[in-house]
Amino acid sequence: MLFHMDLSEHRDDPLIANASNPKKLALCLSGGGYRAMLYHVGALWRLNEWGFLLKLGLISSVSGGSITAGVLGLNWGNLVFDGNSCAVNFEEKVVAPILMTADRTIDIPCTLLGIFDAGGAGHRVATYHEKHLFGSATLQDLPDESTSPRFIFNASNLQTAVNWRFCRAFMGDYRVGLIHNPSVKLSVAVAASGAFPPFLSPLRLKLSSNQYVKDDKTVV
Prior knowledge:
By secondary structure, the chain is of the alpha/beta class. Helices cover about 35% and strands about 20% of the residues. A hairpin with a 3-residue loop joins strand 6 and strand 7 (about 175-180). Helix 2 (about 65-75) packs antiparallel against helix 3. The longest helix is centred in the first third of the chain and has 17 residues, at about 35-50.
């Protein structure tokens, strides 16, 4: 889903506080496992051909869409754009690693191995993503949000029953507050976004209450 956003009147909102230009396009990448992952890489491929990637100010994703968004976010700084705003190495940096991932099965082995893992299947998925896609990269390795799109990975906080967001600037939800500049691994954020009970069990984050900042401007 692609839509135009004019959020210039809401610059205090932490969701867009660091946006270089609030009058940009926002892109939403939905869930749906590998099918969503591959669908979205095709959509991004075409948007790149049209020269739209540099027009994006916000990329929000969930589940399978977060795998694609994570690969794009981690490699954003390595993309080389030509005079038509097309990334000439898009296939190499974004398409290729996603297609390699599609050749492997995640859900069944992670579900089975998760039975014997104290962290459950969610931890196994995070370990898989770390090994094959994101390495030791953290949310701080996403591009600078003042000059690049903000990448938001959405998950469900089962303790508060509301949307939990991971991004470079913060993570959290409106009930417990925000943790600014989180150092959580990108693989963990993507795995949390793709958790699908009861098989791909929720991913557990061990956080301290003193890490949170309660802000009246925290949004849903």
